[in-house]
Amino acid sequence: MRPTPRQIGGGREREDLVAEAHRAIRKGSKSFAAASRLFDRDTREKAWLLYAWCRRCDDIADGQDSGFTLRPGTDGHERITGIRVLTGRALEGQPTAEPAFDAFGQVALEAGLKADMAADVIEGFALDLAGWRPRTEMDLWRYCYHVAGAVGVMMARVMGVEADDEDLLDRACDLGLAFQLGNIVRDISEDDAGGRCYIPVEWLAEADIPPGEHMKPAFRPQLVALVARMVALAEEREASARIGAASLSFRQRWAVLAAANIYGAIGRKVRAKGAKAWDRRVRIGKLAKLRHVLAALFEALRSPAEPPAQWPTPSRGQILLAVRMAGPIAPMPMTPLPDEDSV
User: Fold this and answer.
1) CB–CB of 39/252 below 8 Å?
2) pLDDT 10s digit of each residue in the chain, 343 long?
3) Whether the Cβ atoms of residue 231 and residue 164 lie closer than 8 Å to each other
4) Model's pTM, two decimal places?
5) How far apart are the first and last CA of the chain?
6) Environment class of residue 110 by beta-carbon count within 10 Å: exposed (0-12), middle (13-18) or buried (19+)?
7) What is the phi-psi region of residue 156: left when phi exceeds 0, alpha when psi lies from -120 to 50, beta otherwise?
């Protein structure tokens, strides 16, 4: 069997991959799309390419069919295996027949993204499909790292942060952690309807909330308190990320601060609504987003706050240690899919 020549981007033209990625972000995340427009063109296009891969992995993990043919009855393990194999091919410079994965191969080459970074993100999808839920607060941090903190680290590399700049990568990870905590508090009701819960079991036990009953009206006061606790943790990470943003170029700093404002507003709005937070899904409207973008502009022009005496804990290093000790749900397969010409 002839080896397939290395073709970064799956042999597709970069401008076509960027155009497809732009369509994906406009459809999948209006908030991130708005913030990404503040980047310089090079960073913006790389961010779109990375987003397209994240979005497509999420769709496949959820069993979506658009652009990826799933056999009837395809289970979660098969879907995760497919994601891992296609990502591996993309990193090896092989065509995948999937624009989003070809896009990842392109941005991985340009930004120096590595296989372990991708594996960390994919593990978040594997945890969800395995029905996993956090028992401890460290479990919560592990999950948030997989689904958002690791993406924050990749975004930092997209913005040109050096691979050995551990301090700045830590701050990028903090922003991802903050974003995911905001998503969790917003989606508690939807997750419960889908049989998922990301509030640590130990937290629920401390609040005297029986397993699976946190959405019952009788436990709403305790739930509101737990949500306030989670939002406070998000705000610590967000503040850390804001200090890190001072090391970025002006356009990048503005975009990061705008994203922090928009996503941070989600958790704060949930907290402000109290017991009514889940009557309808919390959203940040266009006018509010514009205000957050303008506020970020003025913040980007000001001197950053002084670093705290101690950064939020656990640190990225401590979370990564817990991640490595836990190990993956299933190993990353090393054998690529057959080439289209050989089947």
Assistant:
1) yes
2) 555 566 677 778 899 999 999 988 888 777 777 788 899 999 999 999 999 999 999 999 987 654 444 444 557 888 999 999 999 999 999 999 999 999 999 999 999 999 999 999 999 999 999 989 999 999 999 999 999 999 999 999 999 999 999 999 999 999 999 999 999 999 999 999 999 999 999 999 999 999 899 999 999 999 999 999 999 999 999 999 999 999 999 999 999 999 999 999 999 999 999 999 999 999 999 999 999 999 999 999 998 888 888 999 999 999 999 999 998 865 444 334 434 333 2
3) no
4) 0.89
5) 10
6) middle
7) alpha
Phi–psi pair at 164, nearest 5 degrees:
-100, 5
Q: Which of 197, 186, 203, 193 is nearest to 277 (CA)?
A: 186
The torsion region of residue 11 among left (phi > 0), alpha (psi -120 to 50) and beta comes to: left
Tokens for 201, please give them: 């079991």
